[in-house]
Amino acid sequence: SPRRFCLHPGLSEDLVGTHPPGAHSLVAVSVGYFLEDFVDMLCNQKLHQSWELLFHHSVVIVCFGIAVLLHQYVGFALVALLVEINSIFLHLRQILLMANLVHTTCYRLNSIINLGTYVVFRIATLAWMTRWLFLNRENVPPATYAVGTVGMAIMTPMNIILFYRLLRSDFFK
Questions:
Q1: How far apart are CA 125 and CA 84, in angstroms?
Q2: Can you give the three-state secondary structure of 87-141, one letter per residue?
Q3: Would residue 13 count as lying in a domain?
Q4: Is 87 contained in some domain?
Q5: What is the spatial distance between Cα 138 and Cα 155, in angstroms, rounded to a whole number?
Q6: pTM score of the predicted model
Q7: From the record, what ranges are coiled-coil (predicted)?
């Protein structure tokens, strides 16, 4: 989180080996959450409805799992968790849709906040992470670099497509 960068300035210089106390546990708990959500979707949703999220969760589980097992790239995983701030508003949107509250001020306000946090915490964070990976490619082992590059190559287009769908659904009906 941004607070972590203020309290632990070394983190902004070393996302590979440096991480504040509790960060490793946070990333490990996140792996557990994504695993649980993955299994829940497999058991309770049709594959054609959830394949994108299952794919997303698979990438996150692999990337975060590497950070947890190696005790490296935990700082990079912390940056990636900034993306989840937007999930609050994505989930609230889904709840409002299920409650048939689409034509309410609450839904409209959430749509605006959702898109704003989407740009800041998803698009900008993924762009920053891609840039960091590119700029640090010589300091990252080839296998880890490959996993990170593939992860970013999967997540970035998925998030751009979802952004387009949100724009189209909530603002250009």
A1: 10
A2: HHHHHHHHHHHHCCCCCCHHHHHHHHHHHHHHHHHHHHHHHHHHHHHHHCHHHCC
A3: no
A4: yes
A5: 22
A6: 0.83
A7: none
